[in-house]
């Protein structure tokens, strides 16, 4: 029994995400921040981690935390201060990723499309302003498509290269909720977008992951607007589950998995 236990621990410790280029959008807080902590420990030496969000100061603080817990030599971490609702924000992110391509021979490109916003929770009839609807979709749908397309183009398929794309989804990708038209539409569109990618590119592993109700600023906003308080999970718990799915790598590409079902 003891031997079995020991060997399981050894196997678990040996598992990594490889020598990777890992890009996490929305890494400054909430789930993205927790994902950065988990991924940093699972990437092999000489890997590169790109942290993207608008709050540069929070990203730098996160980088310092990661570097002191992992060691500066182990992992190269770049903070990318960018507004992903804009073309410039997506292009800046791609530009930094392109520099890593030149410098680094990577065996796993992992893109986690986590950044998102809640948007207004309001009656359907209130959404008459095309520009504000476009602005919502720009961050929550368009930027995820353009960024993923850019990264896949930059790192084409080659023997020995694993390419993984994660879409941080929600139960609202599949469940109708009155007054949540922006959020539901955005998450449903993203799910379909990544399903198309999975069909089109069998060599890319695509995962739609619904992380469960999390203790984050987004939930604070939900409670403030709706008055509904959910039982919330610590982000780390959900981040660990997602990392396990990526380590096991047994999911069917394009599948939509919920925290409570895995
Ligand atoms: N919280 C939940 O209960 C829950 C449940 C299901 C699914 N989700 C999904 O999980 C993901 C993370 O949610 P969360 O609760 O951690 O949200 P959060 O606390 O609001 O964090 C959102 C992250 O996205 C970044 N972001 C927002 N707008 C951005 C922009 N224009 N450009 C670049 N980055 C931007 C934020 O950073 P800056 O503000 O610094 O830009 C932040 O790092 C989202 O996809 C969300 O839909 C959350």
Secondary-structure element order, as H and E? HEHEHEHEHEHEHHE
Strand order of the largest sheet: 3-2-1-4-5-6-7
Largest sheet: 7 strands, parallel
Q: Determine Rg (CA atoms, Å).
A: 18 Å
Q: What is the name of the CATH topology?
A: Rossmann fold
Share of helix, binned: 40-55%
Share of β-strand residues: 15-25%
The total of helices stands at 8
Bound molecule types: NADP nicotinamide-adenine-dinucleotide phosphate
Q: What are the segments in which pLDDT stays under 50 over at least 5 consecutive residues?
A: 1-13
* Through-space gap between termini: 26 Å
CATH architecture label name: 3-Layer(aba) Sandwich
Q: Quickly count the domains.
A: 1
SSE layout:
Elements: H1 2-14, E1 20-25, H2 30-42, E2 47-53, H3 56-70, E3 75-81, H4 87-103, E4 108-113, H5 130-154, E5 162-168, H6 181-200, E6 204-210, H7 217-226, H8 235-248, E7 256-258
Parallel strand pairs: 1-2, 1-4, 2-3, 4-5, 5-6, 6-7
């Amino acid at each position: 029994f003891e031997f079995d236990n020991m060997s399981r621990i050894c196997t678990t410790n040996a598992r990594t995400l490889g020598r990777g280029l890992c890009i996490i959008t929305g890494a400054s807080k909430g789930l993205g921040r927790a994902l950065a902590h988990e991924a940093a420990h699972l990437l092999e030496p000489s890997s590169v981690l790109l942290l993207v969000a608008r709050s540069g100061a929070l990203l730098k603080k996160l980088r310092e935390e990661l570097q002191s817990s992992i060691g500066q030599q182990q992992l190269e971490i770049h903070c990318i201060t960018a507004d992903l609702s804009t073309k410039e924000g997506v292009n800046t992110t791609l530009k930094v990723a392109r520099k890593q391509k030149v410098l680094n021979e990577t065996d796993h490109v992992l893109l986690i499309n986590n950044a998102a916003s809640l948007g207004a929770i309001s009656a359907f009839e209130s959404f008459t302003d095309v520009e504000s609807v476009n602005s919502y979709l720009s961050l929550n749908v368009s930027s995820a498509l353009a960024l993923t397309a850019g990264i896949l183009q930059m790192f084409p398929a080659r023997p020995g290269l694993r390419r993984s794309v994660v879409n941080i989804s929600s139960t609202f990708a599949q469940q109708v909720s009155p007054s949540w038209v922006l959020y539901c539409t955005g998450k449903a569109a993203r799910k379909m977008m990544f399903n198309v990618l999975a069909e089109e590119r069998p060599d890319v592993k695509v995962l739609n992951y619904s992380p469960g109700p999390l203790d984050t600023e987004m939930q604070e906003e939900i409670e403030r607007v709706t008055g509904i308080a959910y039982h919330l999970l610590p982000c780390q718990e959900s981040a660990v589950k997602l990392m396990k799915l990526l380590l096991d790598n047994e999911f069917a590409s394009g599948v939509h998995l919920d925290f409570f079902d895995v």
